[in-house]
Amino acid sequence: MSWPTGYGLKEFDAIDSTNEEARRMASRGETGPVWITARRQTAGRGRRGRQWVSPEGNLSATLLIAPSRPASECAQLSFVAALAASDAIFACGAEPRVKWPNDVLIGGRKVAGILLESVSQGSADPPWLAIGIGINLKHFPPDTEFPATSLTAGGISAPKPRQALDRLAGSFAKWYETWRTSGFVPVREAWLARAAGLGTRIRARLSNEETSGVFEGIDESGALLLREAQDRLRTIAAGEVFF
Known about the structure:
- There is one protein chain.
- This protein has 243 residues and is α+β, with helices and mostly antiparallel strands.
- Helix content is 23%, strand content 33%.
- It folds into two domains: 8-193, 2-Layer Sandwich (BirA Bifunctional Protein, domain 2); 201-242, SH3 type barrels, CATH 2.30.30.
- The two termini are 34 Å apart.
């Protein structure tokens, strides 16, 4: 897949964090769209402040972008990113599934993660969004609460990180344009068609409790719909899911 028109690229041999570099660039007034990638991260991070292990051979990349839709809708871009990452993984010969809110699985194990971070530099400055995406091409952390894997461990021939980034960037541009012009509905439908655990019983960990029920889908904002009981459908905006 060719590099998408209008998207820049900034490459590093090693960096603390591609999301942190996006933050620095935004503080200098840059809004992108530009992809930032590094062969190795020394301080990569995932959701909830967790460390994201980023050895050489995996893909570590962040897109710095100023979204064209209202800030209240920007969280939907985690689903756009999940579709793009699953496309890139599918192109390698795997059969990925997406896991709410922002992971990609193969064989029921996590192979890719997504981290969105946003800051407005002030009322006179545009907000920016950093969409960090890590794909375990060759390596994966062995001791994680939700089991992880890599393409190589799954018996898939892993591409070089730059080749994977080309596929990711091209697919993201396609899905972003769909979201920009048509809203969340087509993105939601495509995500649900690839969703792991849909219609099965799951466990959801929230900030101050855990609950369980049947995963019935996501609503028009991307929140999880959990059927806790026959007469009780709960909407969950943020949390972690376990099968």
